[in-house]
Amino acid sequence: STRILSRVAVGLGLLAIPGVLITAIVTGSVAAVAFDVPFSTGLLIGAVLAPSDPAILIPLFDRMRLRQKVEQTAIAESALNDSTGAVLALVFAGVVLSGDASVTDPAIHFLEDLGISTALGIGFGVLLSMVVSNRRLGVWSESAAIAVVAVVAVGYFSIDWAGGSGYLGAFLAGLIVGNMDRLRLGMHSDHEREMRVLVDTLSEVVVILVFITLGANLPWSDIWSNLGPGLVVIAAFIVLARPLTVFACLLSDRRGGWSWQEIVFLSWTRETGVVAAALAGLMVALDVPDAELIVTTVALAIVVTLAVQTTTKPWLGRRLGLEEPAPSLADAADLSAP
User: Fold this and answer.
1) Which terminus of the chain has fewer CB atoms gathered within 10 Å of its CB, N or C?
2) Quick check: 126 and 183 in contact, CB under 8 A?
3) pLDDT tens for each residue of 256-288
4) What is the reported pTM?
5) What is the SS3 assignment for 235?
6) CB atoms within 10 A of CB 328
């Protein structure tokens, strides 16, 4: 809910931008040493690993009945850091490809990307909301599904051409369309349903294609030869970078009123999924040096985080007392009563 997210907005913002940087720097530093690669390559590995996966968290949290404050923060962070992580990874990819060892230029480029992507993404989001609404400007109100594909595609390539991140712009546009009621714009329920069905279907297809691409590009010989260093990087990613990021960001959020149990749980919430896999595939397509190390590390991160963190999260939530009680039969009857 907006009430919960507004309360944790400071911590959420810190996790989404400075938190991604902390994760990338800590993980990247370990990766540079473990793989014996340049620091810029290590930072690229850390940046690719930085985005988490909300698609995994949502069904898991639904089954857990997790405290809403923690659940919504984790999901919102995952959605936001997907975009900032993608921007950061693309910036570092440019650094690695150019061979520039400067720190100032990537930082400036990162901020420029954020600014361009945010401004244009919001603009395309407002435009899309208007053309699919049931207001006078809703020229595509009866073809909302087609409008989404058309505007998002045009927006993605336009933002990319302008020097921003199409990923971040598309995310912000979707965020605005998903909350278009706050702009006092509405949609006919049937048209909204059609749009959501299309978006859900396309999302599933894209996820499948991303993992097929990752699997097709897995360098099996490199995985075995770099298994030890790769596991060292993943261990640092899970038990060092993530807790440090969460503690640094949430302890600064006085308004959020974070308990130590909530901080510990969020420190253990770092599943890697489709965005990192997509970025790894993109690094291969761009022919980035040491791209096989990136693919190897991402593959290990997906397996380890899903096998270790996802399976133990329900137990940890119970131990920390973060699960909300199931509604009683009387409450359920009250809710279902007319």
Assistant:
1) C
2) yes
3) 889 999 999 999 988 787 788 878 888 887 888
4) 0.73
5) helix
6) 9
